[in-house]
Amino acid sequence: MKLAVADLNSYYGPAHILFDIALEVGEGEVVALLGRNGAGKSTTFRSIVGLVAQRTGRIQFEGRDVSVCPTHEIVRGGLGYVPEERRIFTDLTVDENLEVGRQPKRTNAPYWTREKLFALFPNLSEMRNRPGGRMSGGEQQMLTIARTLMGNPSLVLLDEPSEGLSPKIVEQMVDAILTMKKEGVSIVVSEQNLHFARLISDRAYIIERGRICFGGTMAELDARPDIRDAHLSL
Amino acid sequence: MAFYVVQFLTGLASAASLFLVASGLSIIFGVTRIVNFAHGAFYMIGAYIAFTLTDRFSGAFGFWGGIVMAALAVALIGLLVEMVLLRRIYHVPELFQLLATFGLTLMVQDLVVLIWGPDDLVGRRAPGFKGAVDFFGQAIPSYDLFLIVLGPVVLGVLWLLFQRTRWGVLVRAATQDRDMVAALGVNQKWLFTSVFAVGVFLAALGGALQIPRDAVHHAMDLRIIVEVFVVVVIGGLGSIVGAFVAAVLVSELNAFGILIFPKISIILVFLVMAVVLIVRPWGLFGKPEAAARRTPGLTVNPWRPLTQNERLAALAGLIVAATLPLFAGNYALTVASEIAIFVIFAVSLHFLMAVGGLASFGHAAYFGLGTYGIAFLAKMAGLPMIVCLLLGPLMGLAGAAVFGFFAVQLSGVYFAMLTLAFAQIVWSIAFQWVSVTGGDNGILGLWPEKWAASPSHFYWLALGVAALVTIALRIAVFSPFGYALRATRDSLLRSEAIGINAKRMQWTAFVIAGTTAGVGGALFAYLKGSVFPDNLGISLSVDALVMVLLGGVETVSGAVIGAIVYKALNIWLVSQTDLSKLVLGGFIVLIVVVFPKGIVGTLEMLLQRKRSVSPPGSTLLAKPIESAE
Fold this sequence. Notes:
The structure holds two protein chains of two kinds. Chain A has helices spanning 41-48, 71-76, 94-101, 114-120, 122-125, 137-149, 167-183, 194-200, 218-222, 225-231, and strands spanning 3-12, 15-25, 30-34, 55-61, 64-65, 79-82, 155-159, 186-191, 203-208, 211-217. Chain A is an alpha/beta fold. A six-stranded mixed sheet of chain A has the order 6-7-8-3-9-10, sandwiched between helices. Chain A has a four-stranded antiparallel sheet with strand order 2-1-4-5, with helices on one face. In chain A, helix 3 runs parallel beside helix 6 (137-149). Chain A is globular, with a radius of gyration of 17 Å. In chain B, strand 1 and strand 2 (138-141) form a beta hairpin.
């Protein structure tokens, strides 16, 4: 098992946000975390990488409990995180943004060079010296994924990669994620868009009001239209 | 003409050290969000250690090596300070960070006197730069020329460091989004530590390079820190280029201001700063800050007016206090009067800081203006005491109205730095304008009239005024104005969205607080019988902050308790030890680190815990939701 989360509870101040979240990701798998706005997808990701301070539960990454580790150690261990709001360093150029993400080569994960990443996202190679603040939303989304890949992660948490992008860019995004999978990166992708998720995922979880209410293969999900209609707005 | 050119070059030479210190402060702030008050202290230690090293080792190598070694040694001290102290307070509100680093400054002041003695030390001249260059009959020290070149060189080196190294890229990224940098696998702890060490190195280098120009003394820390605050406010916190431009600007204004207003040259700098703040509140090269982060759950106990029983208890306390002259001697009564006056001072700052959310680091300005108001009215106009007491505080009001107007344009650390700079400007005027204020000699012979002359009568007067002021401000807290003011404190945007004119509310609060402080100052002038520039000084401003903090900044009545406890302790401490600054500084650091809720806050928390029968582990949920933001 690549990643195994169990009994994850998270709080923002006095508010209880996540309730006993459990999810598993196998080696090389792409798993979708589906749910509506505010269901707890982003909080789940933020909790896994340690950006939510108030959390309890077990988070096993490659067999090691990382729930007690600070964020940077979790990430250095090979668990990459791409935030929903992109959080590009707007004052830094594309090259410098990538530099911030750079980590040493890892034996159990694909090794990404700038050249490889520019082949994956050709738009970026034309603007290596452009400040992050002067890029379109789609370009920023590509940069934020490329930046995380610079850390050579063996697993990536991708938070709503298709949000706010034009259909053409979404297509590129699907290709990029499939390439990442082919290279051997395990991926958890949070989505509201079932169609997009279906194109890339092997399995899916549905989260609603901070609780996991379904887990199974895409085929199993398709066999349960009642669950799909109750928890996902299509 | 040649004279003006030389004056210009002197200004540029002064700018070099100022730039070094200011850029260090800016870099540290950019990444850690801490305004390092102790930066002036590091500058001063740098100068002292450089003095010792260059004195010990001879030759050019001894001199230049000594300068660099001094800066490195101080950077090492900075490293320790960051790891031992600052790491514990990165997540506390910025006011506490400023206070803790101010506490360090106080400790350093006593330590340098302990190590190097109280006298000014004149350092060695720089080998190779001992002479002067003749410029059309005017002499320019060649060391000044060296400094003029050094400034841009350091700017260039810093630029390369930040643009061309991985460390620099990481620092710039962290300046924008610390959490994201951590989420990319960078260890923030060491990034912060290294940034702090680099910033401190720059400050110490600035101090060390001053020794051929100026004597080394134990007050140079406060002098430079005020100038540095002015520089970063003008240039924009976090911008190195801004620090350079503003350092040159301020130094030139000083150099030429002397020619225009020889007595009050600092006025010119103040005017420029005021203009910059109106046009670009975030400084020439700075960026508009996102709204200051408020720590969630900061105010966990909702404020409420006193209950009937608590009112009776407070009244009983007041009556007991009023019986003091029946059994206390004259000295005790004088001390008690002073404590009553500081209660007035503390509640006035509490109103601005805890109710208005505006932590002023220069509140003594309005207290001191009150004292000078009395001095002018009683000494020069010869008015009777009652009239003086009524009109004297108007000086505080006027000062608060003018400075407050500019100050409330800013918030958070900018507000704190600006209020400190204003207070220091008022202090400089009182200090420099000898013909009006008597300068350092002050104005003497202000004694109360017969009806208030005896210690017991004066004590009753002070106690009565303190009680009135406290009650009045308490009523204001629970008045519609108080609610509106607290709304601006808790969320500026939301309060504006419901139609509150936030800036006007804050300005009003500033004026109320300034006037109240002036009332305290007026009484203080009569208590002491004299007025000095120290009545406007930084240490008095910080006294007020510590009183509020000690009592508990999140409580309504903390200031009263804090003032009584702190002032009594302080008077006792000064009579017991020569190292009162060292003890006081250590005390401040201790409160911030282990006791941030203060006396009343801690008591309330204990009471709250007793009352609520929450199951273990769910204490978070026992708190009211309203605190979360």
